[in-house]
Design a protein that fits this description.
about 5% strand; elongated; about 1100 residues; single chain; mainly alpha
């Protein structure tokens, strides 16, 4: 069952990982420094590879080769290599090996291999030999430039016993005939590893035909729960090795193992040129086809180093050994004699060390760079949050899955405590790499052990018999304790007086000491100097990380902006705060141990774990609740074109995608009875107003021309059809050279009725209202000329004849507008109540510039300069301070003039306007740039049009090589404004898109139910949402406090119109293009506590 769960979990992790990294690449790389984001992604992939291999290994459980007694063995030789360890360390180890029984018919020899040449140890062994001739004391000749003294020490005795391996001459002396290696085993114990009473009995009964049988290590001097430096032992001995056993890839750990003598002789004995002879032994066994086995029974107890310097020296040696193999000819990945599974599994250790050495510092520095310098590694998006949540959950479950709660906790703690070793591993990697380049050897450094005063019998009692283990296990179950699934060492019976035990005893006495006395003795200058001196770079690196992460969390909290104006990037800062807090936890563990060792460590570990868990959970809560939505701008462009289809008047085509719209306005005509069918209804009514329709059409065409690469191929086709629906109507409305029907329907009459257009205009003849020589309208004629000229550019490559027709009408209309000047609101009285114009020189300049772009004739450029120069001399006249809309196209005209001429006055005309909006216009609390005109002017139309102008001007700056900072500033401002409309401000203002979009739109057609149901003013007044979704419509928008009333009666806020969506659509297309390259991430790049790297100049 466990194997099945592990396999399902492995598959789940693979799927979660694949999904997460797909989302990371697709949705989270939108940052300014893309290389930095890819770098972080690389290290994430690297780290996940290690977890994938871990999960894959654990898909097998149940043990490897069958447990059965060893055969053909007569003699066991226990080797105990030592160096500087004191007799108090060595004595219980030798005694344990001597007194541990072996099966009947076996002979056991014990060898103390003393590289330290200690007379005290020699004399003690000699005293034992007087009663037991099977104990031996051996020293070897000094060998210069040795890499691994332990291997050299053991090999000296092995050669003495068995002679040289094949193809090697005898170097050392031999005592008579050599022993028969095929009939013997060797047992290896480190000097501090005390052999349990049942070691040989249990190991020999399970070894079978294997060449190696390994048993796990445990330590009698450190409590497992609070041993923050050895939590990985649970992972390795309880899960990795049992699983590796089933794969036939047991990794030797250097002590507590049995090894066939003929096998080690056949392989040339232990590797003397390797720092980790045990790791190399594993590779050699696999390479030569020998089987290895792991027996998950704790049959020996050792002593872990307690001094910090020795702890890190030990870890450094382990890492150096793996790096030495990785960088040398024994690299398992390049070893042709290793099977594929061996290549992979024996490389896991190398990969793990490298991951810790290189990935950990990257993830430590990320929150620091984010908060202090505003350099973001990823763009936190909604998709990314959910993908990461799934990935992280499966990751933690994969790393901590266990039927034992205590194991699960220690497995999780190992992910935290590993953060303390990254600097050690990094130094070890560099040491080996540097020596490899310089062709120098990496030297073995033994780990010093703490001094223990232990009685031999007490030490032997620390490793209990199998029978006692079972009894203890049953007793523990009765008391509901943390029971492992294997027989374990009963450490409670160990009576060694180690520093840890002393510390634990002293902990209770602290209560009686005064606070001042405690602080003076433990944390006074002398005490600190004694405790911290000589602890190496690890101490100072942990202090640096603690101070850096702690100050980062504080700085992030102090500078946190919760106004919502940062478009979701406040979430990045909040997550970075929790991340920085999480990173302090291992540092606290380290420093507490440096100062107090195990005294109070249980409390520290518990509190630190709680802080770490709270940090992780809080980060996820913030991410889920406040993550920035990834807006699919391309989809919104589609929706916006759908809105225009819903506004169509006339005979709808077969391609009509609005099922609740039918033919309408079929009797619209001129005074002569000529058809004026077609065009668009202006807003939520049935009137066709000429000026806003013309400006909206010109803006749609402008967007398709300037931001063509932001539209899909299909959207370009749909966009042309949308424009053609208007331009076809304009052509029909241009009934003579100096005659243009600028309006159909009277707003003062039709606005009093509430019904479907199809019903209101059924059988109703509407006579259009025209402008002519006696009733001019330079504004509507000029902007209509602009729309027709811009459209002619769009159709030039797809329908040349139609393009020419459009251009011909544009030329005539512009000439008509120039010759007969006046406002069309003065000529058509009804329009004055709705679209009263106060300037037409901007329309004339706008039309002239599009004619110039369409014809390339200089006369139109001169006309554009003429009208705009006049307007600029008047300081924009009555347009000063007005937003770009149906009544003001001055700044868009200036943009075209600047594009063609590069003259500063036209640049300044546009830039002054954009600068005002980006930096001086008041913003709502949630970030919408808002100008309160004190009338019914809508907020989102003005901002949307300005956003499009800002994008177009930024594009122009890019083409002309202007300031990148300003360009990015304008693009970011425009992006934030459009995103506000899509929902970043709280709610969406685009019908049918985003969260909480408007549902009570002031729009007749979408409000009314399907025929034949009645639709009238009571329908308008009802609280029932619009029966049909007016997809893509941008509503008027909120007030200066972000308050939006989703009520039909609030025309200013809930109405929709042709010109509301025009600039908005073009801006969306530009965003679609930016999103696929480098978009939102640049907007807050460098916006940290220190703004050295800030690239835009928007107010905070």
């Amino acid at each position: 069952m466990e194997a099945l769960i592990r396999r399902v979990l492995f598959l789940g992790y693979l799927l979660a990982t694949a999904f997460y990294f797909y989302v990371r690449i697709a949705f989270t790389l939108d940052v300014h420094w893309v290389w930095y984001s890819w770098l972080v992604l690389f290290f994430e992939l690297w780290g996940s590879t290690s977890v994938v291999l871990f999960a894959f290994v654990l898909t097998r459980t149940g043990g490897g080769p069958e447990k059965k007694p060893v055969t053909g063995i007569k003699i066991i030789r226990a080797l105990i290599p030592c160096y500087k360890e004191g007799l108090d360390i060595v004595k219980p180890t030798v005694t344990g090996a001597l007194t541990a029984p072996v099966p009947e018919g076996y002979t056991k020899h014990v060898y103390l291999l003393d590289d330290g040449r200690d007379d005290e140890k020699r004399k003690w062994i000699e005293s034992l030999q007087q009663t037991n001739p099977l104990v031996h004391y051996r020293i070897r000749p000094k060998k210069p430039n040795q890499v691994n003294g332990k291997s050299t020490n053991m090999n000296y005795t092995l050669r003495y016993l068995y002679g040289p391996p094949d193809n090697e001459e005898q170097v050392y002396e031999t005592d008579g005939e050599r022993n028969n290696a095929k009939e013997e085993l060797i047992a290896v114990f480190d000097a501090d590893q005390i052999c349990g009473h049942d070691f040989f009995m249990r190991a020999l009964s399970a070894m079978g035909e294997c060449a190696l049988l390994l048993t796990p290590q445990c330590f009698h001097n450190v409590p497992p729960y609070i041993d923050v430096f050895n939590h990985t032992n649970t992972q390795f001995y309880e899960y990795m090795l049992p699983a590796l056993d089933t794969w036939g890839c047991v990794s030797c750990t250097g002590t507590n193992y049995l090894l066939r003598s003929d096998a080690i002789k056949a392989m040339g004995y232990f590797a003397e040129d390797a720092v980790n002879e045990d790791y190399v032994l594993s590779l050699m066994l696999k390479r030569h086809g020998f089987k290895s086995k792991y027996l998950r029974e704790y049959l020996a107890a050792g002593e872990a180093p307690e001094d910090l310097r020795n702890i890190f020296k030990q870890r450094s040696r382990w890492c150096k050994g793996h790096m030495q193999v990785m960088m040398g000819p024994r690299n398992p990945l390049t070893d042709r004699r290793l099977p594929l599974i061996g290549k992979i599994f024996y490389s896991i250790g190398n990969l793990s060390y490298l991951c810790c050495a290189f990935c950990t510092p990257i993830f430590l520095i990320i929150p620091v760079l984010t908060i202090w310098l505003g350099i973001y590694p990823i763009d936190i998006t909604e998709e990314g949050v959910y993908a990461f949540a799934v990935y992280y959950f499966v990751l933690v479950f994969t790393l901590t899955l266990s039927g034992n709660i205590g194991h699960s906790f220690r497995l999780w703690l190992s992910t935290i405590s590993n953060n303390m070793f990254w600097f050690t591993y990094l130094k070890a990697f560099w040491s080996v790499f540097n020596k490899k380049i310089r062709k120098k050897d990496v030297v073995f450094k033994a780990t010093d052990k703490a001094v223990s005063v232990v009685a031999n019998k007490s030490v032997m009692d620390s490793v209990v018999s199998v029978k006692e283990k079972k009894e203890n296990k049953d007793k523990t179950k009765e008391h509901g304790g943390d029971v492992p699934s294997f027989q374990s060492v009963d450490r409670s019976e160990a009576t060694s007086v180690t520093s840890s035990v002393s510390s634990a005893e002293e902990e209770t006495s602290e209560v009686s000491r005064s606070c001042c006395g405690f602080l003076s003795e433990e944390l006074g200058p002398k005490a600190l100097k004694a405790k911290l001196t000589g602890q190496g770079g690890e101490l100072w690196m942990n202090i640096i990380v603690l101070l850096l992460s702690g100050s980062t969390a504080v700085a992030g909290f102090v500078t946190l902006d919760t106004s919502g104006r940062r478009g979701g990037h406040d979430v990045v800062q909040v997550v970075s705060i929790f991340w920085a807090i999480y990173n302090t936890v291992p540092c606290f563990f380290f420093l507490h141990y440096a100062l107090f060792q195990f005294r109070g460590m249980k409390t520290v570990v518990t509190l630190g774990s709680i802080v770490a868990i709270i940090s992780v959970v809080s980060s996820f809560v913030v991410l889920v609740l406040k993550s920035r939505v990834v807006h699919h701008y391309t989809d919104v462009v589609d929706h916006s074109f759908m809105f225009y289809e819903a506004q169509r008047s006339g005979v709808l085509p077969e391609s009509n995608r609005i099922p609740w719209r039918q033919d309408s306005g079929l009797l619209d005509q001129t005074v002569d009875g000529e058809s004026l069918v077609g065009g668009y209804y202006d807003a939520g009514d049935t009137v066709k107003f000429g000026l806003p329709m013309a400006v909206a059409t010109s803006f749609l065409a402008w967007g398709l021309i300037d931001f063509n690469n932001g539209y899909s191929a299909n959207q370009v086709v749909v966009g042309r059809d949308t424009i053609k629906w208007a331009t076809d109507y304009f052509i029909r409305a241009h009934t003579a050279k100096n005659e243009f029907y600028a309006q159909v329907g009277r707003g003062t009459v039709e606005h009093k009725q509430w019904d479907r257009p199809e019903v209101l205009l059924m059988d109703k003849e509407r006579i259009g209202m025209m402008i002519n020589e006696t009733h001019p309208g330079s504004d509507v004629a000029g902007s209509t000329a602009a729309a027709l000229a811009a459209a002619s550019i769009l159709f030039r490559d797809v329908d040349f004849d139609y393009s020419e027709e459009l251009l011909e009408h544009a030329i005539d209309l512009h000439e008509f507008a120039r010759k007969f000047k006046g406002f069309y609101s003065d000529s058509i009285d009804d329009v004055g109540f709705f679209y009263k114009s106060n300037e037409y020189r901007d329309d004339l300049a706008w039309g002239a510039m599009w004619l110039h772009l369409a014809t390339e004739e200089e006369q139109y450029l001169d006309l554009g300069k003429k009208f705009m120069t006049q307007l600029l001399k008047d300081d924009l006249g009555k347009l000063k301070g007005q937003a770009v809309d149906w009544n003001n196209v001055a700044q868009p005209a200036c943009l075209l003039l600047y594009r063609v001429t590069s003259e500063d006055k036209y640049r300044d005309c546009v830039e002054d306007y954009v600068e005002t909006w980006t930096k001086k216009v008041t913003s709502t609390p949630n970030g919408l740039a808002y100008i309160d005109h004190g009338d019914d002017t809508t907020s989102l139309r003005d901002t949307g049009n300005t956003a499009m102008l800002a994008f177009a001007y930024a594009n122009e700056m890019d083409h002309k090589g202007r300031s990148k900072s300003k360009r990015w500033t304008y693009e970011c401002w425009g992006m934030l404004q459009i995103r506000y409309m899509l929902g970043d401000g709280g709610d969406s203002f685009v019908v049918g898109y985003g969260k909480n979009y408007p549902t009570h739109i002031h729009h007749r057609g979408s409000t009314c139910p399907d025929s034949p149901d009645l639709c009238d003013w009571p329908t308008h007044d009802s609280d029932v949402p619009n029966r049909h979704t007016l997809l893509g419509a941008l509503v008027g928008g909120p007030d200066q406090n972000d308050v939006y009333r989703d009520e039909r009666w609030d025309i200013k806020q809930s109405e929709v119109a042709l010109d509301y969506n025009a600039g908005f659509t073009g801006a969306l297309a530009r965003l679609a293009r930016i999103q696929s390259h480098s978009g939102f991430g640049q907007c807050y790049h460098g916006d940290g506590v220190i703004d050295w790297f800030r690239v835009i100049d928007l107010p905070n």
